[in-house]
Amino acid sequence: MRRAIAFLFMLCATVPRQAFALDKCVLEDAGAGVVVEIAQDGLLGLDDGRVITLAGVRFPHFAPLGGVSLDVRGAVRAALVNAILGRRVELRRGLRKTDRYGRHIAYVRVSPGGEALLQAWLVERGVAVADTSGDGGACAGQLLAAEDKARKFGAGFWGAGLFAVRSAEDAQRLRQLIGAFQIVEGEVTAVDEAKSRGAMLTVGARGSAGVKVILPKRRARGAEAGVMSAADLAGRRIRVRGWIEYRAGPAITVTNMEQIEVVAAAAE
Q: N or C: which terminus of the chain carries fewer CB neighbours within 10 A?
C-alpha cells in the first residue's frame, strides 16, 4: 500500500505546477467551509456537516496491476489529505446542486485567495480524469488541458496504466470494461440519424464490432451555438468519454457534447 502511494506521488511530481482559475467557469457561489474529513471515493466532509462530491472528475477504483492489487482508493484519499484536509475551501456549483444521495456537487478551491481549482490539480497529477458530462462541461477547457499534461507526462494513474485512451478497435478489452468510466478514441465510420431518437455514431470498426456513441435528439442536431451535429462528425477521428454500456456491444451515451473531442479528420 505504501509503495503504491509513494509511486503515485513520484509520478505526480513530474508534472510542472500550474494554477487553474475559476474565472472561465460559469458557476454559482455555494459558500465555504473547512474540510474535516476525506471519505473514500473522494468525498469531502465539511465542518458544517455538508458532504461534497467533486464535480467534473472521475477516480479509478480498486484494481489489479501487474499481478499486484493496488489500493487506488487509498492513494486517492492520500492525495486529498495532502492537498486540503484541515483547510478552508470555497465552493462553486453548476445546475446540479446535489446527487441522488443528497450530497452537494461542487467545484472546490482552497481559500483565502486560492487560484487553483482542486479538480484541475487532481487531474493534472493523474489522480483523476476529466468527466465533462452534465455540469462537468462548465469547466471542460481547464480540465481537459490538465488531463493532456498528465497523459503526456505519464503522471499518477496514467503512468500506472489505470488511466488510458482506449482504442475503439479493441472491442474485447472494452467489453471487459462495461460499467466503467472510460475514454475511447477512433474514427467515426457511420452515422445513423433518426428523428425519434437522435443519432448513433459507430466509432472504430464498422458494423456491430464498433463502439456505439448515442446522442439524444437535441445533441444530434447541434442545438447549441458552435456545436457540431452528428452528421458533421462523419469520417472524423474523435475521443469520447463516458460510462461503457452494453447495447449489443460497447456503447457510450452522450449527455453533453463536451464529452466528444474531435482529434482529427479521417485519413484520405
A: C
